[in-house]
Fold this sequence. Notes:
Chain A is 30% helix and 26% strand. Chain A is an alpha+beta fold. Chain A is globular and about 40 Å long. The N and C termini of chain A lie far apart (51 Å). In chain A, 28% of the residues are buried. By secondary structure, chain B is mainly alpha-helical. Chain B has one domain: Arc Repressor Mutant, subunit A (Orthogonal Bundle). Chain B has 6 helices and 2 strands. In chain B, helix 1 (5-19) crosses helix 3, helix 1 packs across helix 6 (125-153) and helix 2 crosses helix 3 (38-50). The relative contact order of chain B is 0.13. The chains are: A alpha+beta, B mainly alpha. Chains A and B meet through helix 4 of A and helix 5 and helix 6 of B. The structure holds coenzyme A (COA). Coenzyme A sits between chains A (36-37, 93-96, 101-107, 135-136, 138-139, 142) and B (71-72, 124, 126).
Amino acid sequence: MAIVHRKAETVPAAEVAVRPAEASDLATIVALDTEATGLSKASYWKDRFAWYASGHKERFFLIAEHGKEPVGFIVGEVRAWEFGSPPAGWVFAINVKDDARLHGLGTVLFDALCARFRKAGAKTVRTMLAKDAQVIMSFFRSQGMMAGPFIELEKRLA
Amino acid sequence: MRLQTATRIAIFAVLELAAEPERQLSAAEIASRFGISVNHLAKVLRTLGRAGLVEALRGVGGGYRFRGNAKRVTLLDVILLFEPVGPAADGSREPGQDTPDGRALRRVLNEIDDIARATLSSISLATMLKLVGQEKSQEPLRRAARRAAVDVVG
Lengths: 158, 154
Ligand SMILES: CC(C)(COP(=O)(O)OP(=O)(O)OC[C@H]1O[C@@H](n2cnc3c(N)ncnc32)[C@H](O)[C@@H]1OP(=O)(O)O)[C@@H](O)C(=O)NCCC(=O)NCCS
């Protein structure tokens, strides 16, 4: 059953329901991602969908619905002992429909995912972002996220 | 990373005013809260005023008020009004910068500068105020811990 969250003043009377993604959401997910990134990655999302929306108890693919319309999604999983760290929730992707942004939907999705991480035993939530992705970084900062104990390193393979 | 005194004062003043945007505060009130010089603060407030972040209200009870959007103004926006973040923005040259060693050093330092900029530009004043709120809520605990430490020593 979907959990109904009410967001305060910003969108009066707005009701956002968060529910697990279903196979019929795949086209919307691809469309939302294409809108945000400018790249259509249908087969990539099909693959990610199979992993995250398989019903596995530590993987989550959640959809935010306004009325019956999907307006955003968030994807994540609990990973144990990665880099020697105890079980932590990883946010793999978040996306809110362009014209529905800044009304608290991202926050509703993030809270819903964190609640599931907590239930699955995670004590921390983490994510990785491009350094220049200012909007999404400001969003995660506003959720109280700070730099963690890891740093990403990479090298060009000749 | 260290910030110049004027920059720190500016951040404190903007946060203090942005915490209650309807409220006016005098320079003296803000200065006494942070133990800083009123003169220095007045100069900083003029710069913030020119940047459109605060407004000076004249007349009886005149003071300063926050004018920006706390959710959109970032720490980097405030800092850059007072000092550059990263390599000298004025184009001034650093000794040895065109040698292989100088370029190698710049690559490493650029990593640090990039992270500093990404961090500062993702922290809005609204997010900073949440962090200040967390610190405030921990103050009684901190005071109790200090008292306990004094009792042990004393
Ligand atoms: C990041 C994103 C999920 C935020 O969703 P949202 O529904 O707008 O978020 P919220 O309304 O809950 O915003 C919460 C806070 O985030 C911050 N924030 C959100 N958008 C922001 C923006 N454009 N600029 C600065 N801060 C912003 C604000 O602090 C905001 O607080 P407020 O509501 O008190 O103003 C949405 O902008 C998005 O989908 N962006 C594209 C993401 C993307 O590219 N995904 C692909 C890679 S995973």
